[in-house]
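Thread: Modeling a multi-component assembly for a lab meeting

Hi all, long-time lurker, first post. My supervisor asked me to bring a structural picture of a complex we are working on to next week's group meeting, and I have zero experience with this. I have the sequence lines for every component (200 residues in total). Could someone generate the structure of the whole assembly? Inputs are pasted exactly as I received them:
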Amino acid sequence: MYIAMNRFKIALGRENEFEKIWKERETYLDDVPGFLNFHLIKGEKRELHTVYVSHSTWRSQCDFSNWTKSKEFRSAHKKAGGNKTVYLGHPIFEGFEVVL
Amino acid sequence: MYIAMNRFKIALGRENEFEKIWKERETYLDDVPGFLNFHLIKGEKRELHTVYVSHSTWRSQCDFSNWTKSKEFRSAHKKAGGNKTVYLGHPIFEGFEVVL
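Re: Modeling a multi-component assembly
Sure thing. I ran the full set together rather than chain by chain. Output:
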């Protein structure tokens, strides 16, 4: 298994707006080969932002990588980049192999 | 749900040794109220270390917090701190509420 995480810094006070974007987002993930599950998770509040992480689990890194090259990926991200003042900086990606 | 992650920096070349510690570790987690699952996940190789994260999922933050005060927690951690040269620095904890 493989876990893909994207870390977002969300401006203080804009958390509900950010969560609404994700709640209403069409991800087109359910029919993607190897996709297992998705969560949006909320971390610590810091001085200027709240940490959020998009957290998806895949059968393999290869399945995840194939998805990033698919038309479903382009469809899911075509609205990304709007609402710019919600975000402090770009999201930071990290991928993890499940060892145990 | 709540996800607890502890991030480790493992010295290059010591990855197998670190994974063996976790494979052989008795976590005493299965009977802990609210515990859902555990994974050890492996991230990027950097210049001096490889990133690993211990990743556990709980019914609630409260269940996780209760576990950290339990005798099961003390039992699972009584050997922690050995093999010091495997680790670069202390692990960094982050906890996340599952929003979606």
